Amino acid sequence: MNAEELLAEARAGLERLEPAEALRAVEGGALLVDIRADSQRARDGVVPHARFVQRNVLEWRFDPEGEWRDPELARADAQVVLICQDGYQSSLAAANLQKLGIAKATDVVGGFRAWRDAGLPVTRG
Question: How many degrees, rounded to 5, is the angle at CA 65 between CA 59 and CA 71?
């Protein structure tokens, strides 16, 4: 399997959201989680009210049985929408969250760039 096949496999199990759909989901109670690097958020801005979880600890914060879980995040009933810079890393991460039992985990098609380009809310990092 190569990286493109791995990405396709991950996305096959996701109901990915276009940026406007993601905003509506968040307005309806979904949790938007930004997994971009600090440098990207500082350079490009942030989505207001998004939670920030570093990619390298994401699975540990969302593991409902894990010692390092975040109780606000590690809920099997939560609708979680991940956002990264371009929508690749977030797809792989959302698939992992589904494997941890967060069945309604997904991501934003096109990531932060698509969100910003759609004119959706962004504030400086």
Answer: 75
